[in-house]
Amino acid sequence: MRTPRVLVTLWPLLALLALTACHGGVHGTPGRSGLRDPYFPRLGNGGYDVAHYDLGLAYDPDTHRLTGTADITAKAGKDLSAFNFDLTGMTVKSVTVDGEEAVASRAGHELTIRPHDELRRGDTFRTVVRYSGEPVTITDPDGSKEGWLRTADGALGLGEPTGSMAWFPGNHHPSDKATYDITVTVPKGVQAVSNGELTRTSTATDGSGATTYAWHVPQPMASYLATVAIGEFRTSSSTTPSGLPVHTAVDPREEAASAKVLARLPEVVAWETKRFGPYPFSSTGAIVDREGDAGYALETQNRPVFPGAPGLGLLVHELAHQWYGDSVTPRSWRDMWLNEGFATYAEWLWDEDHDGDTAQDTFDTLRATSASDGIWSFPPAEPPSAAHISDAPVYERGAMVLHRVRQIIGDPDFFSLLKSWPREHKYGNADTDDFTAYVEKRNPGKEEALAGVWKDWLYGNGKPK
Ligand code: TRP
Ligand code: ZN
Is the Cβ atom of 298 under 6 angstroms away from ligand 1? Predict the structure, then answer.
């Protein structure tokens, strides 16, 4: 107020505002510190939607130290007085929101940010977090390792289901997908491979030989699918006959063992394109890194990570996830069977189309297992806890659900479903209800038979009769 006189005149209005409004006159409240995922309730955050992550990382394998700047563009879904990112370990040096210093506090994996000016619903805002430290390895409820894994010559960042919070702050729930720029600076002699396409490589002018690799991910990606592999790699770039760029990076110790299977990658992508529809992303490939602690493969976007030379079936599986999981992504971790059931079914179908067992043979073999077999221990759509989201019922019995659908709707409609489902939800999220409703809607007259599949195979306890 410029003069006391105006103040006097406006006094009743100001008093009212003081009672009802906060700083800046916005009725902001804090965003939720979790999205109530059925298995990981504290994962993700409410009140905003990330559009883009611009990550600038530097890592030194000798000191294990990561220095990062995360420039995150998001849109406020409500008036916000504060909001959270998920970040575990690391030390936060500073946080700004739209260029102004913000107050940051940490508790567990929650980084709470109180911007200088409250945010209004619909605002697009940029948060810059500067952080550093030795990123941690996370042990999941099922005992597997993710997050930041050290390797003999570098490190590997892996994020399913929660690990990406070990190397960058963000909204680490699969329901908030965003585009990415991931720029990594590493010392002389090592390389940095990530998702998307390599847009720039530059060497430091200080004579150190440090190199910066800039990777751009133009299609939306769930944070659990982000990766960075640092180390010595044999890289190769080519294009498939249909013009899709292929980038592979292989640990030299795995090169001999990987050569033959990776040579078939274009053929696998071409077959999957025929079966599942257009490849959803702007490039494909693979990362083969000797990673003992993980010991599993992951369908990281554009190029899956393998802990050693993969077999052909595993390559088929991880690349099938580019459609089922990476393009159409589970809405919550309960919908995991939509990832793994389809990726497993892709393996069955590959065999069927390549003179191996038919999917019916594979189904029959699994069907013949005893009722005490682990595959029947819980229904695919309802794992008993977070420790079981990657167990056999999610994979094999999940694929059996799809095969039961095939038996009911017949091959023409089933093969058209394999294409239309990822097309319908391209770059989005879907849950089990979306899937069952979609299948029923496309197959009028079969609702009752399908309802039986959902009841016995998807949600039923024990081995179906
Ligand atoms: N999604 C991986 C695959 O099947 C397996 C996997 C790795 C996984 N880490 C996980 C599954 C964590 C569930 C949770 O290709
Ligand atoms: Zn899988």
Answer: yes
The upper half-sphere exposure of residue 100, i.e. CA atoms within 13 Å in the direction of its Cβ, equals 10
Q: Which ligand is nearest to the CA of 341?
A: 2
Of the ligands numbered here, which is closest to the C-alpha atom of 296?
1
Reported as a single tens digit per residue, the pLDDT across 229-260 is 999 999 999 999 999 999 999 999 999 999 99
Q: Where are the domains of the chain?
A: 28-139+156-222, 329-458
Q: What is the pLDDT of residues 80-100, one digit of tens each?
A: 999 999 999 999 999 999 999
Distance between CA atoms of 123 and 347, rounded to whole angstroms? 45
CA atoms of 345 and 395, how far apart (whole Å): 9
Please state, in angstroms and rounded to a whole number, the distance separating the CA atoms of residues 95 and 99: 9
Q: How far, in Å, CA of 245 to CA of 232, rounded?
A: 21
DSSP secondary structure string, 166-209?
GTS-B--STTS-EEEEEEEEE-TT-EEEESSEEEEEEE-TTSS-
Q: For the domain 28-139+156-222, what is the CATH superfamily, name and number?
A: tricorn interacting facor f3 domain (2.60.40.1730)
